[in-house]
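Hi Y.,

Following your request, here is the sequence exactly as I used it, all 231 residues.
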Amino acid sequence: MNPIDLVLVEDDPMVMEVNEGFVKRIGGFRICGKAKTGKGALELIQELRPHLVILDIYLPDCNGIQILREIRRQGIPTDIILITAAQDVATVQAGLHFGIVDYIIKPFKFERIEAALNNYRSYAEQFRNRGEMNQEDLDRLIKILPSQESYYRKSREPLPKGLREITLQQVYNFLKERQVGLSAEEVAEGAGLARVTARRYLEYLEKIDQVLLETQYGSVGRPINKYKIVL
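Below is the corresponding structure, written out as tokens. Let me know if you'd prefer a different format.
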């Protein structure tokens, strides 16, 4: 498969450099443009029509959601991954409404953006050289995000102190995508979280009956706790 054309949009030069290094390290993507303002980003996207844009929300001249809205208004078929410090539900919902393919919260680890880009590469490959798709193909391709009611309403109580809704959804979605039992260490690495943070969210999801805890015993060493999503 040819490299996927990608545009980076980030106003912080140091973060831009880090993101660029991550993309090059992962491979399979060609950075065809970079922008540090919303105006510059929109001009690049209109000119280059890249497959993918990694877009920050907090830009000096506008909000990244405005760029996303304008891209959709113009009918530009570019996919968007939001990388941002914004964690409020309204912003997350706005991004999902305009069809983002992923949402990564700053600060993040390399493994999180690696997973996002690898998932996108697999997604793009599904459309290569296809004239049509059957239901089985679509069922494999489409990932339906769980509604917040799936666990918040069942708990019927506010989140414990120190837990955040967006991070809880991130952990839940990561488990749902894999559909296999994973340890807290595996979830932490895949979701770009600290190990102790991942364990706290997993324990809460188990408490409200959204994940099952499976203890695996090996021939030597301590038993390993694996968490699996309840479908």
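The chain has a mean pLDDT of 84.

Thanks again,
Q.
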